[in-house]
Specification:
337 residues, eight-stranded mixed beta sheet, 8 helices, 25% strand
Amino acid sequence: MRTADLWHSEGGRVRCELCPHRCLIAPGRAGVCGVRRNDSGTLIATTYACVSSVAIDPIEKKPVFHYRPGTNALSLGSVGCTMSCGHCQNWRISRAGPGDGNVRLQALAPEEVVRLALDGGCAGVAFTYNEPVIWAEYVRDTAALCRESGLYTVMVTNGYITEDGLDYLGEVIDVWRVDVKGASKETYRTLCHVRSPGPVFDAAVRAKKRWGMHVEVITNVVPTVNDSDEELTAIARFIADSLGTMTPWHVTRFIPYLDYAHLEPTPFVTLERAARIGAEAGLAFVYLGNVAEPGGEDTVCPSCGARAIVRDGYTVIKQATSEGACLACGEDLGIVE
C-alpha cells in the first residue's frame, strides 16, 4: 500500500477525488470502491501492487480490435470496483477487498510487470479484470515504465472517473476500452448502482480529444434492461457524434448471471438489431461478441466491403491492412498497427 493521490482533508475525514462518488471517508473506513481507506487522516491506496489475476491475453479479448491487432497483452487486475453491477462476471474480485480471505493477492512491483510482459513476448500491458481506475497510482507508475520500455497500455474500464482522475492517467495510457452500459440515468441506477452515465461519457470524450487515446466501446446487451431501440440508439448516437463514426462498438451477448440469473441470454436477433441501429447512426464498425456468428467480429472495409481482418474468436487469421488502411482499396480504417 502507499499514500494515495487525488484527495484532500475535511476535518478528520478525507475526500477522495478520483471517481465521481467523491467519497467523504471517515477514519478507519474505505470508500465505495473498498480499497481507498482513511488511515488517521491520510488516504491510503491499500491495493497498490496487489494483484489478484495475471495472464497473457490477445488484445482482441479485451475486446480491442483496432489497436495493434493480433498482439498479446499482459493482463492484470486486483480487487474492488466503483460500481456494483448486477451482471458482473468478475464479481468475486470486483466485490472483494484487500482483506478478503477468499481472494489471494500477490505483490507485483511495476518493474516486475514490465519484465513479465517483455519475457512473455507481449506488446503491451492491460489493466483489467476488476476496475483499474481505483488502482490509479499503481496504473500510472506501471504504465510510465511500460512507455519507457516500448509497451502499449490499455485501460479496460467502466469509465467512471473524474476529470482530474483521467488527467492523472492521461499521459501514460494508450487505449481507453470503456463499457457504456446504457444511455439513461435509470439504466445506470438499475444495472450499476451509480447515479448517471454522464461521467462515463465525459471521460470517454476527454480520453480521445484531450489525451489522444484510442477509444473503443462495449455494451453488454441485457434483455429488458438496456436492449430497447431508444437506449441502443442513444448509445450509438453518442459514439458517432462525440467519439466519431470510426469508433468501434462491440455489442455483446449477456449471459445470465448473479442478480440477473433469471433472465434469458440475449437473443441473437437483438444483437443484429443493435448492429443495424449502429449502422443507421453512421458507425462504420459494429462487432458482435459472445456469439459464434461467422463474420460477426471481422473488420469489413466500409468503402469496398473487403474483409480487412478476419477473426476466429480471439485469433486474427487474416490481416489485409497496411498502416491502418484497407489493402484492397486504401481506405483508412482507423487501425493502429
